[in-house]
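Hey, can you fold this one?
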Amino acid sequence: MHYIDLRREAGKKPLGNPNGARAIRRAGKGNTAAVAARKVKADRHAQDEMPVIDDIRAAGILMLRGITAELIVNRRYGDRLQVNGRTDRP
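Sure. Predicted structure:
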């Protein structure tokens, strides 16, 4: 059974736009500008993260799981990059 049918059976109104994206396209509106802005922001963020990732790789952590874990530690402790329990950057 479809989500909308389940909500109706439960006596609830379906969530969201019943026409989906068709209504937005019909109105000539879209999110092209928003998508472009998000791409620019994502590219900028990726460029900002590359020095941190290079430091992690230089410390010998090459697997994606390890790099991800170190990025999480880096976020948790601010600008200090902790690798294997030691602080590598002030």
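The mean pLDDT is 78. Let me know if you want another pass with a different chain boundary.
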